[in-house]
Amino acid sequence: MKNFFRVLVGLLAFQAVLAKDPPTAAPVLSPGQDLTSLVNPFIGTSKMGHVFPGATAPFGMVQLSPQTNWEVMFKADGSYNRETYEYCAGYQYRDTTLIGFAHTNFSGTGHSDLGDFLVMPTTGELVLDPLQGDDGSRGFYSTFSHEQESASPGYYQVDLQRYGIRAELTASERVGFHQYTFPASREAHIILDLVYNVYHHDNKNVWTFIRVENDSLVTGYRQTKGWARTRTVYFAMKFSKPFHSYGHKKYNAETYNGFYRRFKETENFPEMAGKDLRAYFNFRTREGERIKIKFALSPVSTAGALKNLEAEIPHWDFDRTRRETRAKWQETLSRIEVETLSDADKRTFYSAFYHASLSPVLYEDVDGRYRGLDQNIYVSEGFTNYTIFSLWDTYRALHPLFNIIQPRRNNDMIKSMLAHQEQSVHHMLPIWSHYANENWCMIGYHATSVIADAMVKNVGDFDREKALQAAVITANVPYFDGLGEYLQYRYVPDDLSHSAVSKTLEYAYDDWCIAQMAALTGNRSVEGEFLQRSQYFRNVYDPALGFMRPRLSDGSFRKDFDPMDTHGQGFIEGNAWNYGLYVPQDIEGMVEMMGGKKRLTARLDSLFTMDIADKYIEKHEDITRDGIIGNYVHGNEPGHHIPYLYNWTGHPEKTQERVRMILATMYGPTVDGLCGNDDAGQMSAWYIFSSLGFYPVTPGAPDYALGSPLVKKAIIHLENGADLTIIARGQSPENLYVKRVSLNGRELKGTTLAHGDIANGGELVFEMGDRPVGQSK
Amino acid sequence: MKNFFRVLVGLLAFQAVLAKDPPTAAPVLSPGQDLTSLVNPFIGTSKMGHVFPGATAPFGMVQLSPQTNWEVMFKADGSYNRETYEYCAGYQYRDTTLIGFAHTNFSGTGHSDLGDFLVMPTTGELVLDPLQGDDGSRGFYSTFSHEQESASPGYYQVDLQRYGIRAELTASERVGFHQYTFPASREAHIILDLVYNVYHHDNKNVWTFIRVENDSLVTGYRQTKGWARTRTVYFAMKFSKPFHSYGHKKYNAETYNGFYRRFKETENFPEMAGKDLRAYFNFRTREGERIKIKFALSPVSTAGALKNLEAEIPHWDFDRTRRETRAKWQETLSRIEVETLSDADKRTFYSAFYHASLSPVLYEDVDGRYRGLDQNIYVSEGFTNYTIFSLWDTYRALHPLFNIIQPRRNNDMIKSMLAHQEQSVHHMLPIWSHYANENWCMIGYHATSVIADAMVKNVGDFDREKALQAAVITANVPYFDGLGEYLQYRYVPDDLSHSAVSKTLEYAYDDWCIAQMAALTGNRSVEGEFLQRSQYFRNVYDPALGFMRPRLSDGSFRKDFDPMDTHGQGFIEGNAWNYGLYVPQDIEGMVEMMGGKKRLTARLDSLFTMDIADKYIEKHEDITRDGIIGNYVHGNEPGHHIPYLYNWTGHPEKTQERVRMILATMYGPTVDGLCGNDDAGQMSAWYIFSSLGFYPVTPGAPDYALGSPLVKKAIIHLENGADLTIIARGQSPENLYVKRVSLNGRELKGTTLAHGDIANGGELVFEMGDRPVGQSK
Questions:
Q1: pTM, whole model, 2 decimals?
Q2: Which neighbouring-strand residues pair with B193?
Q3: For residue A219, which residues of chain B lie inside 8 Å, CB to CB?
Q4: How far is A478 from chain B (nearest CA, A)?
Q5: Cα–Cα dist A506/A489, whole Å
Q6: What ipTM is given for this predicted complex?
Q7: Per-residue CA distances from A569 to A482, A548, A618, B52, B259 (Å)
Q8: Phi, psi for residue A394 in degrees, rounded to 5
Q9: Which of B647, B537, B633 is nearest to B577 (CA)?
Q10: Please, is A416 exposed, middle or buried when counting C-beta atoms within 10 Å of its C-beta (0-12, 13-18, 19+)?
Q11: What Rg do the C-alpha atoms of chain B give, in angstroms?
């Protein structure tokens, strides 16, 4: 079954997909509609969305995207600007220059790495520094304008004004495909920059290696340290036209000749190695001549990269690859068809869906070989291996979304996590892992949530017993991030570990997930133990203050405490107002603990309406006023469930109001249409769920919380062949209240929707109205 | 057949080998004699021999040996001493302190690398710096004395006086086995130093990685730059006793926690990585308690190392491994049995034989997987892969010796070279290669000589056509070390490339070897082309001066020229007097060119008797007065054939005199018994051949030059089951002249011995006398 979809859609010409029946034989809302045309990859490329506009296949290993961060790299005094946080994906829409196209980029993350293998075509005198030479000379960067730039799923195009070169990019899963249209030039160059990385003030190189195998094939690797402690990416780079000469510049001192100078290493010498290398390949071009490059990646070896290159793109037909990848996107996006009130909503929806289909990414060669966490090479027997698990973000809605629309992939992702756990010297499931590395970013052990959610929704065929064992081991590593203290004190003491309240809350939730896994495998003793741990949230609640509050190892609450502040208050990426409401595993218990429904309703009302002083905003590095409603922060994850909490306080109509408000104000089909980091798809997954009228407030539980759909109609084509149709009767911007919900004709009582009831399709009907139920206008 | 001998001798208990019939059923000179007891691994460990005294199996991947270079590392002013050339193998006999035991060492090389994975047992307060801490504190080095030190093939033992620890080492092919006998201590440590390397003033680390898999198993790797451009060695380290705690110190700045400190990285945290690491493992020991360590290497992965560890030493019986490895040495050494005039000669002979059986070394895992020159992982189908090819040295006599006593290994070595050529981006056979790297040391492309010699002697089943092709490609790489100029000018012009005369001479000889390969494969056109090239030596001969002399690209000879000087005179590691006589492929032609037999005899007489001024000696970094007879330099390779040249000038008796003189004065059974670098066995191979009465003056030719045997009798047990018996009748120190030589009862006319005549065994009888033939006393 490996690569089943890839192969399938690869065989289908795009025209056939669009013009005739799409591969899903199910009912369609807009027969023949090209859903990819509704995606705008530039959405979120301004400010803090941290997404990239470049070319990639769904969940592909290659993210071939322009790197624009020239202007801000230098301060007025010529020094480097280290404020490069907003360049997590290498691109900011406001920029007017770019320095080339890199093959790996995170989508939407809040910290970065990658930017491997920057390729830049130039003409004229050879310049090898992207920004500025040591002598102050001008780098090879080019200006560009958005008028001469376009992007769609699997395709990116820009004109490099300085050189008169049109650059076009597409990609298969493992291969980036470049097409450069040159002017007539006797000095045309393709630069391969192995120094550059995202955050490139911060040289992460450990070692790089290039082999010029012949006059049109180059292989090599790049090994970096940084967020990934040691990451090696191999490549094979094939040119459509032989270069007539080549060379490189090495920025570190090592020579390569033994004692004596044996050869001129810098020019036409086919072996280059060192910490920092930039290579170039020279051509003579006719006016309008195209030079194409196929650039394959591998986690294993250059031989693996070459195999990937030859297996995925054996030809030089750029348009064919572009079509094939577009067809893969069509297949991916057509899993949900929607009818919306406005075109804008539809564009926002499909762009969110696109962003929710970028990562985790494939991390294995075409032969199934991949690099494990222990740096040994494995073959993915019985699954497809994935990497980039930003789990503190994505367990919330992205993996639950996969359980509906990509269950096979989610199964593979979980198997990848279990393989990670087996390869981990800590015997831990991934926390935040990428490229055979654990970077330990953020808190909790939320792989347990992803696994529990799949188990409770009966997704996948991964080994449940093994998964439970892996989760239990993970949840008992005493030296991990306050976990030993959590087990000892039954909360994480603020004086012993940072972000102690957030950790206590997240651990308690994850422990509840483990209890669910134990229950599903019939392990009563583990279930009991972890259910008990799941109640530890109570130990950081200060009933006197009415807030979750940092508590010291002596049992007392911390004295200086500002529930408005995000920093140093025992929370991380959220203040006590937001993060302090994080008890998804026992919302009823939390409501009661916090004084009952009425009091919590008032608290929530305040949250959404109170003023937040500028001083608190300034400290957020990854959110802006754009991502905030009152003191509610949508631009970061800890509050993503909060709008739905009104369901538990007896005010579902307020959930409906807030959800619709967030859908309308925090997202949009514009370059600044993401109010915070997309966080590997979590922000977009929130949009998709909420647009459809429900949300997984408690991953690991079998139910969704009902909200207020934005769509008029949606059909979800499930992998089991069934369709779930969602209809919002009387939908309009004003009719945001849900009067009645029925599933297959039966009214749903309460505010939840059971996964089991929709897993085999059916019809979910929302009847919308312009006022809350029971209220008259 | 892979590892046939290893398996065979592993099965035979050592007692059986010694007490009963040895595995060769052939006649023996000294039935039951333990030949390993005749080897003194300390021979050559003083001054410039550059050999190591540690534990290793024949041609084994592990060379586990003490590293002693403490005293000289600091100058009086506290700065590092960079004069560490004499520490190529990590050990100098004069030293009285050592800093631990490293797992890889070159034997006898003239430049160095390696010294991987220094292990040191200590007691008392933990000290992690070997020499001196940043604060000036004393390092963990210990004093030792030669009275409390011993070594024999496969075994090394020393008492660490500072700690009261007895250290014992043995090794299988891929696994080092340590046995440390501790005093009672509550603070016993095993230090694993990943910073150290041979030449350790010169930090070569690129990256290192350690995983503490459990309380007695550690894995990881070390990646270095330096002589090998990028070399990675993986390890698995198993302790016989669990450590109770552990930790490490990282000397580079990188932290490993993402943004936040997640854990205390330095203590009991099982994952360590960075450029420079030293780890430690803590124990409590009883008086006399032994802690053993099995330390396996792999060129492929930690998984490979672990596999090697478990396959080769599945037990904890140190003495068993010691016995098994000793049996392997007995098997290796018993391939030649000798009777000598003195015990000293016998010890010198077997120690030379030992040194000639250390490298090239095995370079593959037990499953046949190895790292290729392109850094991809290969499986050695149909051969065993070897590395460490110091070919400028070893093509002269070591590989020819293998063609007699280790033809199967030599076949594997040639196949390894051919694999290297296939993996080379230059498509070149190895020049000086080690650990999946080409270090380009020295000149020529002498793999062609090794291959031609095997072909002409009908050794091995490697693909002859492929070998010829590989050689022809190698000999035509225009950017290689003056080769393009050599082809253009028919000599290497002195103004265009350094060491131009030496290169011209070596290339011409190698070209002759390629012509032999072509002849043997019936390729007349290649034969003709390369025979022509083989005469290019004539183009650097200055008939006016009577010397080979640097020639400029304008055709003129260089004006300033000192034939006595080694440096900057167009030669390398030899002056014109020595290196200028290097035309092994056409000695008759050379004699004629240089004025005939009489004139050359006089020239040779002068060479061996003239004075050489101190100023010329001082410039030699790797030879001393000890290695010189007159102006003849035996301590370096370019002259190794010279004593035999008298055979071509009509004075074989002078060959006999000089050979016996060199055998007697340049070698001996003492720590300074090597007069120059052993050069991976070449110096020792010269001794073995010359002791047996013949020498391969022209590798690639089917004949040996006859000399004067040192042995009274020798039996060479050939791999084909036949025996070659050599008898020197009337042998004595005075009877150094050969009166008559007969093979199987038939007198040999002339001064050569055909390989074909001894390849199937037989009896070679030298009749010795005290005066040259035809001369009366």
A1: 0.94
A2: B118, B278
A3: 374
A4: 10
A5: 15
A6: 0.93
A7: 16, 10, 16, 61, 17
A8: -85, -15
A9: B633
A10: buried
A11: 26
Query: Which of A221, A250, A440 has the most B C-beta neighbours within 10 Å, making it the best mutation to test the interface with B?
Result: A440
CA dist B153 and A709 (Å) reads 81
The model's pLDDT over B136-187, given as tens digits with 9 standing for 90+, comes to 888 999 999 999 999 999 999 999 999 999 999 999 999 999 999 999 999 9
Give A272 to chain B, closest Cα distance, Å. Answer: 10
Q: Phi/psi of residue B773, each to 5°? A: -60, 135
Peptide bond into A360 cis (omega under 30): yes
**Core vs surface per residue B79-108: b (16+ CB within 10 A) or e:** eeeeebebbbbbbbbebebbbbbbbbbbbb
For chain B, what is the mean pLDDT? Answer: 92
Asked if B449 and B510 touch (Cβ cutoff 8 Å), the reply is yes
Q: Using an 8 Å CB-CB cutoff, list chain B residues near A227.
A: 258
Rounded to a whole number of angstroms, the distance from the CA of A384 to the nearest CA of chain B is 22
Q: Which stretches does DSSP call E strand in A372-442?
A: 377-379, 386-387, 389-390, 432-433
Instruction: State the Cα torsion A118-A122-A126-A132 to the nearest 10°.
Output: -60
Residue B771's contacts (CB-CB under 8 Å, 6 or more residues apart) are B737, B777
Instruction: Choose, out of B257, B389, B425, B438, the residue to mutate when testing the contact with A (most A CBs < 10 Å).
Output: B425
- Hey, are the CB atoms on A262 and B227 less than 8 Å from each other? no
Within A225-302, strands assigned E span 231-239, 245-250, 271-274, 277-285, 290-298
Copy the structure tokens of residue A423. Answer: 């390869």
d(CA B579, CA B503): 10
Answer whether B302 sits within 8 Å of A270, measured CB to CB: no
DSSP letters for B348-378? HHHHHHHHTTS-SEE-S-TTSEEE-TTS-EE
What gap in Å lies between CA B678 and CA B42, rounded to an integer? 13
Q: Is B287 exposed, middle or buried (0-12, 13-18, 19+ CB in 10 A)?
A: exposed
Q: Coil, strand, or helix at residue B281?
A: strand
- Which two tokens mark B400? 């020819």
A303 contact residues in B (CB cutoff 8 A): 374, 376
CB count within 10 Å of CB A161 equals 14
DSSP secondary structure letter of residue A734: S
Q: What is the pLDDT of residues B290-339, one digit of tens each?
A: 999 999 999 999 999 999 999 999 999 999 999 999 999 999 999 999 99
Are B229 and A273 a contacting pair at CB < 8 A? yes
Which residues in chain B are closer than 8 Å to A441, comparing Cβ atoms?
258-259
Residue from B259, B275, B424, B486 whose CB has the most chain A CBs within 10 Å, to mutate:
B259
CA distance A525 to A529: 6
Q: Report the distance separating Cα B652 and Cα B749, nearest Å.
A: 12
What are B281's two structure tokens? Answer: 């493992």
Orientation angle between helical segments A407-423 and A464-474, nearest 10 degrees: 50
Chain centre to alpha carbon of residue A764 = 29
The SS3 of residue A387 is strand
